[in-house]
């Protein structure tokens, strides 16, 4: 089942890159048993390679253009914003959270100085109720 991004999921994704690792929301997200699509947004003039632990993901759209035949990614470079219009880039990813894999994990920018300066967020996979 494919589910839309919840407000809490959106807040977590949106929190990356604010200069600190986001710890406080780690235990509020229930993702096990779900296939979700997240829209990652890059407002910066630099690209940032997005990486998430545990789950590979498919890129299904880049800047609202659907990918014809999505493949599996471990890390995907978010393009920079449009330097003419200032419009942020967007990359839509799809991933499934397995019900037998639980615990805290992270997603982060794969450029080490960016990661060390806060482009990382913790989330927790918890056993689902279905
Ligand atoms: Cu980065």
Describe this entry's structure for a reader.
- It is built from 2 helices and 10 strands.
- The protein has helices at residues 7-15, 112-116, and strands at 2-3, 35-42, 48-52, 57-62, 65-66, 72-73, 75-78, 89-96, 103-109, 120-125.
- The strands form 2 sheets. Strands 1, 2, 4, 5, 6 and 8 form a 6-stranded mixed sheet that branches. The chain has a 4-stranded antiparallel sheet with strand order 7-3-9-10.
- It starts with a strand and ends in a 5-residue tail after the last strand.
- Mean pLDDT is 80; it is low at 14-28.
- The structure holds copper (II) ion.
- Copper (II) ion binds next to loops.
Helix segment count? Answer: 2
Nearest-integer average pLDDT: 80
| Total discrete domains | 1
- Ligands bound here? copper (II) ion
**Element-level helix/strand string:** EHEEEEEEEEHE
Which CATH architecture is right? Sandwich
Q: What oligomeric state best describes the polypeptide chains here?
A: single chain
Largest sheet entry: 6 strands, mixed
Which structural class do you get from the secondary structure elements?
mainly beta
What overall form do the CA principal axes indicate? globular
Number of strands: 10
Low-confidence stretches: 14-28
- CATH class, named Mainly Beta
Beta fraction = 35-45%
Helix content: 10-25%
- Per CATH, the superfamily is Cupredoxins -  blue copper proteins
Termini gap:
12 Å
Rg over CA atoms: 14 Å
CATH fold description? Immunoglobulin-like
């Amino acid at each position: 089942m494919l589910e839309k991004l919840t407000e809490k999921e959106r807040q977590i994704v949106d929190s990356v890159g604010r200069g600190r690792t986001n710890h406080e929301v780690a235990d509020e997200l229930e993702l096990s048993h779900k296939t979700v699509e997240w829209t990652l947004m890059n407002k910066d003039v630099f690209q940032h390679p997005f990486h998430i632990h545990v789950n590979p993901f498919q890129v299904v759209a880049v800047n609202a253009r659907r990918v014809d035949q999505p493949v599996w990614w471990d890390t995907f470079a978010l393009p920079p914003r449009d330097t003419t219009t200032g419009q942020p880039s967007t990359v839509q990813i799809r991933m499934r959270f397995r019900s037998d894999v639980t615990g805290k994990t992270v997603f982060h920018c794969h450029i080490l100085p960016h990661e060390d300066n806060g482009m990382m967020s913790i989330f927790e996979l918890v056993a689902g109720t279905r």
